[in-house]
Amino acid sequence: MSHEPWWSSAVFYQVYPRSFADSDGDGIGDLDGLTARLEHLTYLGVDAIWLNPVTVSPMADHGYDVADPRDIDPVFGGMAAIERLIAAAHQRGIKITMDVVPNHSSSQHPWFQAALAAGPGADARGRYYFRDGRGPLGELPPNNWTSVFGGPAWTRIVEPDGNPGQWYLHLFDAEQPDLNWEHPDVFDDFEKTLRFWLERGVDGFRIDVAHGMAKPSDLPDAKDDVKVLSHSDDDPRFNHPSVHEIHRGIRAIVDDYPGAVTIGEVWVMDNARWAEYLRADELHLGFNFRLTKIDFDATAIHDAIDNSLAATALENATPTWTLSNHDVGREVTRYGGGEAGLRRARAMAMVMLALPGAVFVYNGEELGLPDVLDLPEEVLQDPTWERSGHTERGRDRCRVPIPWSGEAPPFGFSTTADTWLPMPADWAALTVEKQREDPDSMLSFFRRALKMRRDRCEFAGGGLDWQAATRDTLIFRRRGGGLVCALNAGRRAMALPPGELILASAPLVDGKLPPDAAAWLV
Ligand code: GLC
């Protein structure tokens, strides 16, 4: 009997609900669509779902602008639909983890509406960051912070008397005002939200912007060179030390529900600072994004893996691995696109699945979907596009709906061809239906790899040792079970290390591993 918690080696499958499966023909995916497609997840062999936000939202940032955290948006099917999903997933032995968004609310949240109506100095304003502007008439924002999506992080409001007045802080879209966690209502309400979902059988949470929430009290200016959709460790907008008290509070609640897991989105690069979030009384798991930031390069991959292992080791925590998600783009494209991109993505899936810890697979990754780089400008929906003054196209490229079946869009995703983002006609070759029939497809391959990872004792235990390899190749061996993983990121075929070959991402050539390929040996 293992005493490890279920999530310590789990494969989480990230479902971007708008894009997974549409049950009611409005062109937007929903929860009943997901429930009807759970068989795909059983077929693939995943342990848990991470569901991107489905709570009530005006959808300015597709659910990351929450107007009611304790109800499901009608577009996703309402409360009854999530109850059906939880029951059906649990029946299949699949856990459900949900996104929660503590850093900000929607501007349509009743608290923010009350704050606007209440006027300067009112307690209702204290739940957010309202400040007077600088300049003689308060016409300048309180500091120089920018929104992660571009443009200023402050928006000036019209006061109830009709005059321009205070400014409020929003690190993301203007429809996403930042909550002030120093106001006691904010934690109390978040506690209600966590308990609400845990009582309904949810198995844990992915905590959005887990390194946000706390701000330095004097809100000092940031450096001038802050970029859209990224930030450094010395950025005053994020990672303020008092955030850890919030995480301890969250953990104390979640600990009332044995087995429930918290996974933080922690964009902090310094290992010591990052690991603070994984202390025994804070988050269970934290995303490490280094593998999403690098090319198909052996040295960079080696460093990213070492870095993640070293960071988690600081707190004896479980490593997590992820190659892509709804924010960072798909790896097939990052590795060069086309056939080479696909081969490399397949090889990197094997590297990821060979590593000790929890793995996150983003829906469509198992099909080898690329980013859709040529979406027409008029269909772009990510707020980044508008807020960056049309200089950053944003993240829609990796959010295009999943192709299930058939020869033309919407490929079984919906009954309408008018899907919320258009689907490329050449995805006909990538449908789940086609790939299930083809033993050499990415999907069949993923399924085989996941089954081995689940069934074989060689994948047991934490830790790994690197073995001698050339500059363009990698070989590591799992310390516990002894699995060996070899990756060839070079241009010439690679001699395999000793052992019995159990899986290769491409056929061997004269007994050697070709370029852009990986192998598992025992
Ligand atoms: C996180 C989410 C991203 C969202 C942002 C604001 O980074 O992953 O999709 O836009 O938070 O909530």
TrEMBL record:
Matches recorded under InterPro entries: GH (IPR017853), GH13_cat_dom (IPR006047), O16G_dom_2 (IPR045857)
Protein name (Swiss-Prot/TrEMBL): Glycosidase
Alphabetized Pfam families for the sequence: Alpha-amylase (PF00128)
A single GO molecular function term of this UniProt record: isomerase activity
Keywords, comma-separated and alphabetical: Glycoprotein, Glycosidase, Hydrolase, Isomerase
Family of the protein in this entry: Belongs to the glycosyl hydrolase 13 family.
CDD domains reported in the protein's UniProt record: AmyAc_OligoGlu_TS (cd11332)
Span of domain Glycosyl hydrolase family 13 catalytic: 14-399
Single biological process term from Gene Ontology: oligosaccharide catabolic process
